[in-house]
Amino acid sequence: xxxxxxxxxxxxxxxxxxxxxxxxxxxxxxxxxxxxxxxxxxxxxxxxxxxxxxxxxxxxxxxxxxxxxxxxxxxxxxxxxxxxxxxxxxxxxxxxxxxxxxxxxxxxxxxxxxxxxxxxxxxxxxxxxxxxxxxxxxxxxxxxxxxxxxxxxxxxxxxxxxxxxxxxxxxxxxxxxxxxxxxxxxxxxxxxxxxxxxxxxxxxxxxxxxxxxxxxxxxxxxxxxxxxxxxxxxxxxxxxxxxxxxxxxxxxxxxxxxxxxxxxxxxxxxxxxxxxxxxxxxxxxxxxxxxxxxxxxxxxxxxxxxxxxxxxxxxxxxxxxxxxxxxxxxxxxxxxxxxxxxxxxxxxxxxxxxxxxxxxxxxxxxxxxxxxxxxxxxxxxxxxxxxxxxxxxxxxxxxxxxxxxxxxxxxxxxxxxxxxxxxxxxxxxxxxxxxxxxxxxxxxxxxxxxxxxxxxxxxxxxxxxxxxxxxxxxxxxxxxxxxxxxxxxxxxxxxxxxxxxxxxxxxxxxxxxxxxxxxxxxxxxxxxxxxxxxxxxxxxxxxxxxxxxxxxxxxxxxxxxxxxxxxxxxxxxxxxxxxxxxxxxxxxxxxxxxxxxxxxxxxxxxxxxxxxxxxxxxxxxxxxxxxxx
Length: 629
Fold this sequence. Notes:
Residues 13-39 are annotated as: Disordered. It is found in: Nucleus. The protein has 629 residues and is α+β, with helices and mostly antiparallel strands. It contains 22 helices and 12 strands. The strands form 3 sheets. Strands 6, 7, 8, 9, 10, 11 and 12 form a 7-stranded mixed β-sheet that branches. A 3-stranded antiparallel β-sheet has the order 1-2-3, with no helix packed on it. Strands 4-5 form a two-stranded antiparallel ribbon.
């Protein structure tokens, strides 16, 4: 608050006449002039205290007073007089005291307000000033504050460089405070959406907001990026600018993001920002490409489990195969007859079953991910022969590709799980063959059927210790819990105290219970019972049972779910920790309006003739109520 008052002193210059102007000169003697000058210099309203720290008359002689004008390092020892200070401002900075106001030797260009200002008091629009202070955009709007209608025309602003210096100081301080505050949270969420602040203008802006729940279940939402969208720009370069803004915040605790179906991060998976994106889970209403379910799930699972004991080679092979699947399948389809002939020339024969599999593989014409996996599963034997004996082939192209596949470790692919994986993904067999728009309901139904298949497969394999089955189980669990954003959505709904368990399908409810139970057990192990597994399991079971059997609240009731959890976190500590993490994701499925953004954008509009629009790097418009932003 003290910082704000200091900034307010800089923005506002009193129009009242100084006390010294009321003095009547009754003598022309040098002693009387000296006395009057000293009275002026020592006045607490003296000009110097607007530019010298500590911004008021020091209480003790010997105090160091520093000039705060950007680029100036002058300081004076306080000896009871401001003569040096006033002289410095006049000679070095062209600032002097007139009879009625603070002026510069080089006057500012006058500005005429075209917007009515109804407030008769000398006030500045506080939210706007906070917004300006928190803006990282080049400072170019001080002289336009009056014409924009945000500042009373009667207020005389100080010079631009003074205000800019103070704003930069405040920005740096507030930016660090904001970053530190968000970094202390366990997890935070991003929402990236394209909005039109004013429908009449028709201009779009990409707006990024961040939200989380505190330990006291206070909801925080921050706007920290807004940039005009140009349809003719290079999307990859444009998105990199936004990623740079995110990297500046150094948020290692980002967990979820919603980009409104615009594939915001998809363009950057192969660039230097891959590590930043790796641990983020995307929340979206309905994907435009169902192949994402298979391709990205396999790739991300392989990355996450790459260091798992006994699975390194296989996960590496799956990652390489997923990345290069199109090229691998294309080569195999084009050369399957030649490969088969070369293998026969090496006196290697296939049994009848393998021959039939090869014939069936040749009939597959679809190039979707599902049928590529099916094709690869049918030509296992010739593919292994190709990779393991690549240097024995006469055809140079086959030798080259075979060597490349060997380097990718594709001979380590777990072919045995492909058929079971296809069983789980059976609902996608004909859906992914061609691009088509599907409804959210249809998409949800598809994932429900896949979840049921995965759950049934896990039950079948629960006692199997076979390495390939362990890999399959790992992938199925990952797909059900980590990758499936619908599971996250259902989990958030389950953790909403206004919801009813019978509104969730039995299969999904079973998965949610299993997931929450494990998370609660981990919470008790880590925080309460110090690795006592039995007590942790018992406490987790009792807590989950207590929550499910709680008195039901109406979904449209006035009960605030955050307030409910704040009052219940002592009784349900494990689930409360989970609610803090997942409950805020519910707001990310809603529209993300930013009230008054059009006014803020207009304030930052570039000078006439500029090619770029507004680019607000970081803003600290922090609120505790979603509807207030």
